[in-house]
Prior knowledge:
Layout (H helix, E strand, L loop, with lengths): L2 E11 L3 H12 L5 E4 L6 H11 L3 E5 L27 H9 L5 H19 L6 E3 L9 H12 L20 H15 L2 H6 L7 E3 L10 H16 L12 E8 L18 H4 L2 H9 L2 H9 L2 E4 L5
Helix pairs in contact: 1-2, 1-10, 4-5
Amino acid sequence: MFQAKLIVTGDDFGYCPRRNQGIVECFLAGAVSNVSLLVNGSAAEDAAKLARRYNIPIGLHANLSEGSPVCEMLKTNSSLLSEAGFFHGKMGFRTALSKGLLNMSEVKQELKAQVDLFHELTGHLPPHMDGHQHIHVLPKVRHVFAEVLEEYGIEYTRVPIEPGLHNCDWIEPSLMDFYVGVEEDSLNTVDVFTKHGIRWPDIYVGLSTMGKNMSVSAIQNAIDTAIVEFTSKVPAHPVPQHRTVTIELMVHPGYPSLPPIGGCGEGPDDFSQSWERLHELQTLIKPELQSHYKTRNIQLCSFKDL
């Protein structure tokens, strides 16, 4: 019999007061066990105070794609900025990167500034650090990201390779194309992170269960599928009796942002204003999900507990 440890990470903590409220409610209900802070979010300071008040395990959600940099020197005349003076955006960042327009020393400068600001806001270094919109697994960026984690002694990250993703026929094609790209980048990142001594949970889940695609059964199936796939790789990686399998479930609960409040310097995006955030919150706190974890011997924890 193996035991599973599940980290349910609420991403985008600090994005707006309503996001913070929803994530805290999920934590207090035992539905989220860990959070990832956007230090350039408009409510980051409030989020750090809430984490301290409620003893919420908190890591860093490194952001190079939405809003404004936190490094003063990069707020003007930086390759990380578009003509409008903000980060290039989820797809804009990828385009600029593929064209060789991004200065990697500026990427490193901004990542370090975000770690320093996290330390300033929370009083400690992040036990884990991942990337907003999965920028941390992109070519070139992955190397710089790994160097920063190693320099600061940050042990854990996220590698978004979700078992069974290709069988999820409910995901719309344009989104699936993006997810497949994220998966490919992640597969190419494994060796880089390993070389730098960085660790991540055995299993990642969260692409197939985002927003409107989240349901109790979708989460249950995604986790069960992933565990079966992981434990079936016995010849290559023997799983001894009582082995603990670690899983991260990425979630985005909260109450919808009400513009102009929220965002990372340029107001809240469409996903943040949509009903999908509230849908995630309402799904995650359902008692049948909690009881499913218990019957499957799945224990909720944070990166600090690994």
